[in-house]
Amino acid sequence: MQYGYFDDERREYVITRPDTPLPWINYLGCEAYFGIISNTAGGYSFYRDARLRRLTRYRYNNAPYDLGGRYIYLRDADSGKFWSPSWQPTRHELQNYECRHGMGYSIIGAEYNGIEARTRYFVPLGENLEIWQLTITNRRTAPAKLSAFSVVEFCLWDAQDDATNFQRNFNIGQVEIEDRVIYHKTEYRERRDHFAYFACSEKTLGFDTQREAFLGPYRGWDNPKAVECGNLSDSVANGWAPIGSHQVSVELAPGESKQIVFVLGYHENPRDQKFDPQGSQVINKRTVKPVIAKYLKPESADRAFDKLKAYWESVLNICRVDTPDVHTNRMVNVWNAYQCMATFNMSRSASFYESGIGRGLGFRDSNQDLLGFVQMVPARARERIIDLASTQLPSGGAYHQYQPLTKRGNNDVGSNFNDDPHWLIIGVAAYLKETGDWSILDEPVPYDNQPGSETALFEHLQRSFQYTLDRLGPHGLPLIGRADWNDCLNLNCFSDTPGQSFQTTTNKEGKIAESVFIAGLFVLAGRELAEIASRRGLKSECERYLNEVQQMDQTVRKYGWDGEWFIRAYDDFGNKVGSKECKEGKIFIESQGFCSLAGIGLEDGLAQKSMDSVRKYLATDHGIVLQQPAYSQYYLHLGEISSYPPGYKENAGIFCHNNPWVIIAETRLGNGDAAFDYYSRINPSARESISDLHRCEPYVYAQMIAGKDAPTHGEAKNSWLTGTAAWNYYAITQWILGIRVDHDGLRVAPVVPGSWRGFTATRKFRGVTYHIEVIREGTGNHVELIVDGRPVEGDLIPVPPEGTTDVHVKAMLRAAKTAVRS
Ligand code: GLC
Ligand code: GLC
Q1: Ligand nearest to the CA of 641
Q2: Are 527 and 536 spatial neighbours (Cβ–Cβ below 8 Å)?
Q3: Residue 413's pLDDT is what?
């Protein structure tokens, strides 16, 4: 069953009933001011950092699930009836309910008793504010007399403190009201130089800023006393819970419409100009007033909206495809690219599953995310790389996470996740291939943000590589540390105390447990680094790296191969993990996918065997599970992985993030049908018709789909902020469709299903637009290119002469001469 449909033309997902299985959300903002918004207007806003600068309150894990948001109430003066056009929070039955989630905006509304009301929510480019444009239309035959009420609940900035420190927080809330604008200024009197504001375009009948005055005792958002009575009481918050609510009277003739604009925003003042007059406690509003005045005008709001549309148009035009598969088209052209921008902005910090409090930007996560967004925002990708590398430690290791506001490494989580450093090499290589901007390698970048410690970025990469060489285990495989990509395979933790963190508790020496996955990653990163070194003229460096890679490849064959598949790891006792010798967890996806995609065993059949085992033991209709058989009990020596009930998360869930590794490995083996088949199993659009089972949004990937051991096999969880976005985008565009960026130019090397007659694509790359037409003339993947009318050897498009703007490429697919892709 479906809860809506894709409007591909408008790049929107249209939800047609409010009671979706879970809240289906969207993101507002793409620079510094952000919001999360659900299909019933739930969610919250923040400036840069969802933990440290949260503007509005949201209560996670509430009942009903999604409560707290950007709410509007309408009240009919004659009948006294009131309702919310976004359904929540009153949940009255509505007609023509629709939520259109688009690129950086959402339009939510419905009809009730002949009154239609729809609100368009978005964040203008370059501003730290959000606009709500509410349009009310009277569809009755008689005039209508209504009141419209807005409401937000302010968060006292630090979301963690706000949800825990009540003995203080019930005393500090402060507001100011001037010219109908509500200013939230808690802690502005002391160390904060920022405040929030909530303004309304119309003359207001009243306001409320004290939550309990608005709701009334023992009432919730679904039944506020003030709305029921039809009057706000001009309450002023002193402590307790500051809110912002305006009341506007709306009289409409039959057929008449009226627009009301609300603006919610964030503003900072220089510390020495905080107050006006100086010496008073009144906010200096000189610089904020013009901004508010501007965006309360519907024309300015419309203009800002058009600019936002144009921005997304240009971003999404970088890679466009037209394939025989509608799900591929809409994911590549719209939603997967859009999700990659969300993971760029949010990393794993703020969604309806990530509270915005726990995790800042992950080193491993953000480096991998680069694979999905570098082509859309190259300049910001460069900045992100420098920020990430600045948190690297002198040893080459890395803080696992950093806080986006301070850009400092997070000490609570620390380092020693031994895969982390290699992802920096992968991220930088992706940046270089996309942009050709080699200057980044000479950029001076500090370690642990310590001034004076700067070296060229290139040296950071060298130290990343060396980090593993300094930490090899008894078999010559990389030591795993606290965990590798799989945060939950904690082989040095041995935790028997409830509440201990599996990631930070380490009570084994860490000199025995090894990771075959990191070995695969080392091989891939080592090849990238060798290539970079060689292009910098460092011949012997390059050779050294390739020797180490070769050595690791041998070690994996010797100690990392189990006969039919790659072993996953060695535990602290030196026993195999992910081997036929194990009782449970005999085969894992990570080492199959990553070793094969890195090229280990591509030529001599090991990779193909590994893929055959994936198909035999791990593949399900809903995607590929992480391991089998699932752990049926807790194993002290394996850690968090065995803490999850079978079929969920890392314990044999379908962890979508690593499915594309298998997809890429299949393309490297020339298996287009297998690759596309796996791709389609987890493509959210292809799962739209089973929304009752899938439950998460059909327009974005979720981190996890419950595996075959779970009672809810096929149910997705943790949508939006997942490495799945970048990896799947990378897998479909660069490996299946085969439009692949490389140091010397763009390749066209598709490995698509045998049944496809072909496809077309346009790709902007280093200032040139490539118009690509792929035509199948035979059964295989062998490519013959015709570039601007001339045949070209191989699959690399030669760099066009200076000044070229467009290049036309025809690629003929024929029977394969060689199966294996380099
Ligand atoms: C989460 C983490 C990621 C990790 C994965 C597997 O997605 O953000 O860093 O690799 O889980 O444990
Ligand atoms: C949990 C999650 C995993 C995440 C880790 C670190 O173990 O399952 O996905 O990466 O926590 O926060």
Answers
A1: 2
A2: no
A3: 87
- Looking at every residue in the chain, the average pLDDT score rounds to 97
Residue 775 near residue 744, CB atoms below 8 Å = no
Q: How far apart are CA 130 and CA 105, in angstroms?
A: 10
Q: How many helices (H) and strands (E) does the chain have?
A: 20, 42
For 234, counting Cβ atoms within 10 Å of its Cβ (0-12 exposed, 13-18 middle, 19+ buried), the class is middle
Task: Point out the ligand nearest to the CA of residue 590.
Answer: 1
Q: Hey, how many other C-beta atoms are within 10 angstroms of the C-beta on 9?
A: 6
Residues with a CB atom less than 6 Å from ligand 2: 487-488, 503, 640, 649-650
Q: Kindly state the tokens that stand for 790.
A: 């001339």
Give Cα 708 distance to the centre of its chain.
Answer: 26
Over 80: is that where the pLDDT of 820 sits? Answer: no
Give me the residues paired with residue 182 across strands: 177, 198
CB-facing half-sphere around the CA of 802: CA atoms within 13 A? 0
In 294-441 the beta strands, taken as DSSP E runs, fall at 319-322, 361-362, 401-403, 408-409
Cα of 354 from ligand 2 centre, angstroms: 11
Task: Assess contact for 187 and 156: CB atoms under 8 A.
Answer: yes
Q: Whose CA is nearest to atom 10 of ligand 1?
A: 485
| pLDDT at residue 412, as a whole number | 84
Alpha carbon distance 789, 779 (integer Å): 24
The residues lining ligand 1, judged by C-beta closer than 6 Å to any ligand atom, are 348, 362, 364-365, 485-488, 650, 657, 703, 722-723
- Residue listed under structure tokens 């490849």: 553
pTM of this structure: 0.97
CA of 727 relative to ligand 1 center, distance in Å:
13
From the alpha carbon of 644, which atom of ligand 2 is closest?
8
Distance 400 CA to ligand 2 centre (A): 12
- What is the Å distance from ligand 1's center to 487 Cα? 6
* Ligand with smallest separation from the Cα of 644: 2
Among all chains, which residue has been given the structure tokens 């590589």?
465
pLDDT of residue 822 exceeding 80, the answer is no
Residue type, 570: Y
Instruction: Compute the Cα dihedral for 443, 449, 455, 459 and give only its sign.
Output: negative
